């Protein structure tokens, strides 16, 4: 009798676990919406980086945009920084990267992102989140008033995390998928 009870409990537990897992599956139409949200967040990040890096942006506005930018990322995400003048890639916590960007020693800074594309499909992780990678190319140009110009193009991979969240609206719990950005890794830096 104890073996039968144990077997029934095991079957029920597996069924509940399977149902929970199945609820995390993403339908093709939902995946399309998630892809669109991920691309929107990447475009927002590109815009925010341009605003923060611009020497025309007032300090108080740059600080406000930094706070908005941090909302796009998972905690502990890092941004890779490279240069044509060194082989080493340095990684900074996102806030530190953005504050350093704001204080760059150029009189004018222009940062543009282009050729944004998925390079990996979303893959389900053991923790229930989906993970994917988006590749971008970043064109950086810094100039000084005395005519010095630094330019490079960097290929970067941005990890994205897709997870199921809940919010309460009108006393009801509503589930939704959210996209957060993770580490931004430097793949290649070129002239």
Question: What keyword list fits this structure?
Answer:
191 residues, alpha+beta, Nuclear Transport Factor 2, Chain: A, four-stranded antiparallel sheet, two-stranded antiparallel ribbon, 6 strands, 36% helix
Description:
The chain is of the alpha+beta class. It has a single domain, classed as Nuclear Transport Factor 2, Chain: A (Roll). It has 4 helices and 6 strands. The strands form 2 sheets. It has a 4-stranded antiparallel β-sheet with strand order 3-4-5-6, with helices on one face. Strands 1-2 form a two-stranded antiparallel ribbon. A hairpin with a 5-residue loop joins strand 4 (130-143) and strand 5 (149-169). The chain is globular. It starts with a helix and ends with a strand. Residues 2-23 have low confidence and may be disordered.
CATH class: Alpha Beta
C-alpha end-to-end distance:
74 Å
How many domains make up the coordinates?
Answer: 1
CATH architecture label: Roll
Average pLDDT over all residues: 87
Approximately how much beta-strand content do the residues carry?
Answer: 35-45%
What is the CATH topology? Nuclear Transport Factor 2, Chain: A
| Main beta sheet | 4 strands, antiparallel
> What's the tally of helices?
4
What structural class do the secondary elements suggest? Answer: alpha+beta
Question: What order do the helices and strands follow?
Answer: HHHEEHEEEE
Q: What's the shape?
A: globular
Helix content: 25-40%
Low-confidence segments, given as residue ranges, are 2-23
Can you count the beta strands? 6
Biggest β-sheet: strands ordered side by side in the sheet: 3-4-5-6
Over all CA atoms, what is the radius of gyration? 22 Å
